[in-house]
From TrEMBL:
Keyword line: Glycosyltransferase, Golgi apparatus, Membrane, Transferase, Transmembrane, Transmembrane helix
Protein name: Uncharacterized protein
GO terms for MF: glycosyltransferase activity
Gene Ontology cellular component annotations, sorted alphabetically: Golgi membrane
UniProt main location, coarse: Golgi
Localization of this protein: Golgi apparatus membrane
Length: 64
């Protein structure tokens, strides 16, 4: 355990990304979001993007 850690976030992916045109396009959009948008925001804007479906907050971090 790391008491000073307030948030963890993981990248997620589609399991059926090659199933049809729609899932391929959704996968392209999601990859762009993680590989370009979040990286650029983090480097140039010092912006932290949180994707709620793939992350967890420590309640104490929110209370502080």
């Amino acid at each position: 355990r790391k008491p000073d850690l307030g948030l963890v976030q993981a990248r997620w992916d589609f399991v059926n990304k090659d199933e049809n045109l729609l899932t391929r396009l959704q996968n392209i959009n999601l990859r762009f979001h993680f590989e370009v948008e979040q990286q650029v925001n983090g480097v140039f804007l010092n912006f932290f993007g949180f994707n709620g479906t793939a992350g967890m907050w420590r309640i104490k971090a929110l209370e502080d």
